[in-house]
Amino acid sequence: MESYHHANEAQAAPDPEQGLQTTQPGDPEGAGKGRALAQRIVSRAGLAREMSSGLLATVCELGLRAVAELFEEEVTERVGPKGKHNPHRPGVRHGYDTGEVTLGGRRLQIRRPRMRSREGVELPLEVYRWAAEREILDRIALQRVMVGVSMRNYPLALEPVSARDAHRPRSTSKSSISRRFIRLTAHALDQMLARDLRDLRPVALMIDGIHIAGRMLVVAMVIDMDGYKHPIALREGATENARVVTDLLADLVDRGLDSSHGLLVVIDGSKALAAAVRRTFGDMALIQRCIEHKIRNVVDYLQKEEQPWVTRSLRKILRRTDAELARRELDALARRLEETNIDAAKSLREGLDELLTVHRLGIGQTLARTLRTTNALESLNEIIRAKTRQVKRWRDGDMRERWVAAAMLEAESQFRRVQGYTELPALARAIYHATVLKQAPSQQTGGHATDTAA
Fold first, then answer.
1. 451 CB contacts (<8 Å, ≥6 apart)?
2. pLDDT tens digit string along 189-232?
3. Are 137 and 177 in contact (CB under 8 A)?
4. d(CA 313, CA 316)
5. In sequence order, what are the residues at sequence separation of 6 or more whose Cβ sits closer than 8 angstroms to the Cβ of residue 442?
6. Taking a C-beta distance cutoff of 8 angstroms, is the pair 273, 239 a contact?
7. pTM for this structure?
């Protein structure tokens, strides 16, 4: 009997038949018994050689043997014991065939029995159908590639298997993983573009662009009444292109995005994007320009020595809770900028009312900080950049969109509620009064509407 024990020569290998009494000085009696029992199981199963590959390799081998035993149990239950004649059995054994099961992130070969009915029809082996399922294999492949495992080195990231199976790379080769990943990301893209939006209770819609390998993709995300973020759309093209954004918004409406109770749309400083929002939603949308984009746009026109004090001034003004006071101070700053840089002043005045939309709604400062910028969407963009950074060669077609869609769905599972989510019902009421009832915030009781908007 072959033993896996390779201790020094001064210590003899324990006898498996007497292993239950094997102990070492200072060891509790139970520990010695457990160690001896494990040795006997491994030795009797003929797995001593597999232990050199590690415990997981041994477990994989045991798993294959367990599946083979389940095969035999099912065949015996359905067509009777082997070698015993029974004229009433519903079928007969029909030899063996080679099959594959999913184990340890791989497809491993296994010998499976076959059955036929009395009429000669092949009977399916239910245990084999379960063991051969590829869904978990696809899920593992998608997750590992998205976290940075290259397709070339994919087998190195898998759990170890027995030596006899390690050289069979059919399910883990670069080409196999590549084909599987293309199929899975294409499904993610289809899922993203076909997602039904009728069950969402949208309060805010954020739209921004992200550069991926020299191209711009426009992404959209909804914040619902409970404060959860939902990536809902992407399209290749610049946010400065009104046609691209209009088509994206029209698609959201076709898929059931509800704006009947009003909607806050948070965008960057793009004029085309603001025009597309008005064209699609009309008076039912309130536009909030991202204050961070506005600050960058203004500062870009200034000389280096002017940039710090203008940045500080803008941040101080935009932290005001009084919208009218903030507007007067912004006008004063624009007049001051006109004396030195007329283009910076024009940039500041452009869309100035939309810079203070959230201020006028009178919501709490925690939620206001979330909605005055597109930072909530920027966190999604950072995840997209992290997932796509490993790609060295981008091909034509939908490769960028596939990768971004997969990253967006992966990011959604990691999202937490937005800060200040408890204030969203009050925000929804304020939006309802401003869009549906056409009331200014000053006409609302206590700065908020008292009727329920959704």
1. 429, 432, 433
2. 898 888 999 999 999 999 988 888 888 899 999 999 999 999 99
3. no
4. 5
5. none
6. yes
7. 0.70
